[in-house]
Specification:
MetI-like fold; membrane; MetI-like_sf; cell membrane
Length: 251
């Protein structure tokens, strides 16, 4: 994908994976940036994804902790509903969600309207719950004896011990909204507010064919969209390895 985005003349043969220096250019990036603002698209994607990440982590931690550590009536029923939500495809809910958010709440052409449907993730709740269940109950009981509140226990005792789960949720959550284009496209038609994935989808459907090198321009946009995900994966991969090594050391 990177090589194709740098080719002045497309070469899809195996030899094209090692292009001649004279066939390398940045014109494809310039061409796609002239039609869609790549920087603005990245900023919009960051706002959308950042809002989803914030809600997913906060509510996932709170709900996962409650379902795993606290004892209250109906806990099993709530957990069953969390599992049930996962079998309902988002596409089935898209039309009623659009009517509720765009028409009833008036949040069309609004970042909040993009974020709300993804603000709470049942997958994150399940992941945090399973990790919290693995922690010894004596840790929480000792903190309660010392007078710590449940929020204090969650912040000071539970969260530091479920760091791998936190990183997993961030990675899984980031990829979804970062690549989401259908829901933001429904909520806003303002080009200045559309995430990069939406702008690229519009570019592919209506503009790319008219450019000098449609193949290279498409790949250039795809590279820009993929770079933040790859960087995040590389950074977090080091944290995963560190956590795995530390978990095998006693004392």
């Amino acid at each position: 994908m990177v090589v194709g985005s740098l080719q002045a003349t497309p070469d899809s043969s195996p030899a094209g994976a090692f292009p001649a220096p004279g066939n390398l250019t940045l014109d494809n990036y310039v061409a796609v940036n002239e039609r869609i603002n790549l920087l603005q698209g990245l900023v919009n994607s960051g706002i959308f994804t950042g809002g989803v990440l914030l809600g997913t982590v906060v509510f996932g931690l709170l709900a996962g902790y409650a379902l795993a550590v606290l004892s209250f009536r109906g806990r099993g029923t709530i957990f069953a509903l969390v599992l049930l939500v996962q079998v309902i495809p988002f596409q089935l809910l898209m039309i009623p969600l659009y009517v509720m958010i765009a028409r009833n709440y008036g949040l069309s052409d609004n970042y909040l309207g993009m974020i709300l449907p993804f603000f709470i993730s049942s997958v994150a709740v399940l992941i945090f719950r399973q990790y919290f269940l693995q922690l010894p109950k004596d840790l929480f009981n000792a903190a309660r004896i010392d007078g710590a509140s449940e929020l204090r226990i969650l912040w000071s005792v539970a969260i530091p011990l479920v760091r791998p789960a936190l990183l997993t949720v961030v990675l899984l959550t980031f990829i979804g909204p970062w690549n989401e284009f259908l829901w933001p496209f429904l909520i806003t038609k303002e080009a200045s507010m559309q995430p990069l994935a939406v702008s690229l989808a519009n570019y592919i459907s209506s503009i790319a064919a008219s450019t000098a090198n449609p193949f290279g321009s498409l790949l250039a946009g795809a590279v820009v969209l993929a770079v933040p995900v790859v960087v995040l994966l590389i950074i977090f991969q080091r944290q995963f390895v560190s956590n795995d090594i530390g978990s095998g050391v006693k004392g």
